[in-house]
Specification:
Order of helices and strands: HHHHHHEHEEHHEEEEEEHEEEEHEH
Strand content: 15-25%
Strand order of the largest sheet: 2-3-1-4-14-5-10
Number of helices: 12
Helix content: 25-40%
Length: about 425
């Protein structure tokens, strides 16, 4: 998810750094309004770009071997039985949340595996969700349903099936509260077999408790789409804002996670306010300043950079697993008074304009920028930032998507090792919270 200039070997995005900036009063206490059509085409008609990939052999095999090939048909039957908008809303809410819970249960070893794919596999959730959204697109209810109402149902389905509206952080002082986010698989036109280890880690960690020297820490997770327009509509802020505000369930630590460089983890120091335009899962490109939607608390003047507050020195020094963990300080900027991008290994210079954060100019950089900007806007005094995982690769002899299998032992071992090290990194970070 890095910029085209520096993406070689990369598959993901990042987080942030810079001196803390002066923050204006929040614009609004309300969550941002839903943007109709944010998930691509939501009109009653043909499937979206992502949904059309379901017709490929690989997604069908992943659904069958993951035991999730029954999800979309059951949802379609339940929708067909809805006789009112309220009934449709209930169907969407129930089936969306059920899909997320089923994926989490499978990843954490509860209940039958339902197929022979490794339990830690994040891909059945992704493809099953797309089957549900396509069923919703194709549904012809027996009552009038506007495009806007269908889009709202789709948005609810997206949130509930991603864990975004069930971040159930406990109250009280006896436990620390942590939010971790991951991403869908991406670059699927090149290889529809791809998995995203950040999404797999989110499924493995959701609702779990880790023990730290300073006490137990509860982890709640969510997964986000690889789609520019939904980020512009405020999906990140909508999910995080209730847990960043003061109260008995306010987060004590958060980290956004995505897939990054081969062979290493990176704690990204600085996030940039720039979209580099690389195509997303809907084959949409967006270039320009990261847009902040109306109603989101934000500084009066949007900063070019945000900085991590994760304890990167402790994380880098700890022995968390087989992969090295780096403190990544590099950015790409247009210096003050200049007009050409310059790579800065040590971070941004005063007055510069962002062109790439440490993790690039794609959606992982953007989620890190949005989360840390929201942290600053509401005055959240908690560690937070972005972690890039190693790239997940298929084993030797299985690299050609035209002839390869959907899984292999090295692929599974790599994903499990990354998940275990993510848990260890989060545990180290949580241990610094008092």
């Amino acid at each position: 998810m890095r910029s085209l200039r520096t993406r070689l070997g990369w598959l993901a995005t990042a987080v942030a750094v810079v001196a803390p900036l002066a923050i204006a009063a929040p614009v609004s206490a309300a969550a941002p309004a839903e943007a109709p059509g944010a998930a691509g085409s939501t009109r009653a008609g043909g499937p979206t770009v992502e949904e059309r990939r379901l017709d490929l052999p690989v997604p069908r095999e992943i659904l069958r071997r993951g035991g999730f090939d029954d999800v979309a048909p059951r949802f379609a039957r339940a929708l067909a039985g809805a006789r009112s908008p309220a009934a449709a809303q209930r169907v969407v809410a129930q089936h969306g949340q059920r899909l997320w819970e089923r994926a989490v249960d499978r990843a954490q070893g509860r209940g039958p595996a339902g197929g022979d794919l490794s339990r830690d596999d994040d891909r059945p959730l992704y493809w099953a969700r797309l089957g549900m959204t396509r069923a919703l697109t194709e549904w012809r209810p027996a009552f009038p349903l506007s495009d806007a109402r269908r889009a709202a149902l789709r948005a609810h389905l997206e949130r509930s099936s991603r864990g975004q509206d069930t971040l159930r952080l406990p109250a009280g002082k006896g436990v620390k509260r942590i939010v971790v986010t991951g991403f869908d698989p991406f670059q699927l036109d090149a290889d529809p077999r791809r998995s995203n280890p950040s999404g797999a880690a989110a499924l493995a960690l959701d609702g779990t408790t880790v023990r730290t020297p300073s006490g137990p820490a509860r982890i709640e997770t969510a997964v986000f789409p690889v789609r520019w327009d939904e980020f512009a509509s405020g999906v990140v802020e909508r999910a995080l804002l209730p847990h960043f505000r003061p109260g008995p369930r306010q987060v004590d630590l958060f980290t956004t996670i995505s897939q990054g460089r081969p062979g290493r983890f990176d704690v990204e120091r600085t996030n940039g306010a720039w979209r580099g335009g690389y195509g997303d899962n809907a084959n949409v490109s967006r270039t320009g300043l990261v847009p902040i939607p109306p109603g989101v608390p934000t500084p009066s003047e949007q900063p070019q950079w945000t900085t991590t507050s994760l304890p990167y020195e402790r994380i880098v020094a700890a022995k968390t697993g087989p992969f090295p963990v780096r403190d990544n300080t590099a950015v790409t900027e247009i210096p003050a008074g200049g007009d050409e991008p310059v790579e800065r290994p040590g971070g941004p210079t005063p007055g510069s304009a962002a062109r790439a954060g440490g993790g690039g100019d794609y959606l992982s950089n953007e989620i890190a920028y949005r989360a840390t900007l929201l942290r600053d806007a509401v005055g959240l005094d908690a560690p937070g930032g972005h972690l890039h995982t190693p790239v997940l690769a298929f084993g030797p002899g299985n690299t050609d998507p035209a002839t390869g299998t959907v899984s292999d032992p090295e692929f599974v071992r790599g994903r499990q090792a990354i998940t275990d090290q993510v848990r260890a990194v989060v545990t180290v970070a949580a241990g610094t919270v008092r």
